[in-house]
Amino acid sequence: MNPAEQRPAENIQRDWPRLKPVETGLRGRCPRCGKGHIFDGFLKMRDRCEVCGLSYDFADPADGPAFFVMCFACVPAVIFALVLQVKAEPPFWVHLLTSLPFLVATCLLPLRPLKGWLVASQYFYQARPGRLVDADNELDKTRT
Ligand SMILES: [Zn+2]
Fold first, then answer.
1. Per-residue DSSP letters for 71-112?
2. 126 C-alpha to center of ligand 1: Å?
3. Region 60-88 average pLDDT
4. How many angstroms is it from 64 CA to the middle of ligand 1?
5. How far, in Å, from the CA of 29 to the mean position of ligand 1?
6. Which of 25, 37, 61, 99 has the fewest CB atoms found within 10 Å of its own CB?
7. For the segment 27-52, what is each residue's pLDDT rounded down to a tens digit?
8. Structural domain includes residue 78
9. Domain range spanning residue 47?
10. CA–centroid distance, residue 32 to ligand 1 (Å)
11. Does 71 fall in a domain?
């Protein structure tokens, strides 16, 4: 195991330059070293960086990339298809050649860079799931 992984997250970040999530994530690069790869395939995450050994266990973008694609890519593609239909009233095959490829391209192509950006942002801002304070332990601390 890489010795840097055994230290707390704050120390790990001090040993490496703080790389901007946009620069590393959009290219699918490791958020710590900027050289390794995040993905093993189109959207599947690697277990760890092959260059610096950073474990990607922290990465959990959930449905964030799909949300951004739905909001910023799918809507314009659907509007394009609707405007094309209303303005030109083309036969159905025109939509198969224009609207469908445009819709698929605007849905699939941004997924990978968006997922990389969200994972890199999680690392950069040290985002973690929230935890509730253990009420029993807090009471014990106040009694002693
Ligand atoms: Zn790395």
1. IIIIHHHHHHHHHHHHHH---HHHHHHTHHHHHHHHHHTTHH
2. 16
3. 89
4. 22
5. 8
6. 37
7. 999 999 999 999 999 999 999 999 99
8. yes
9. 3-126
10. 5
11. yes
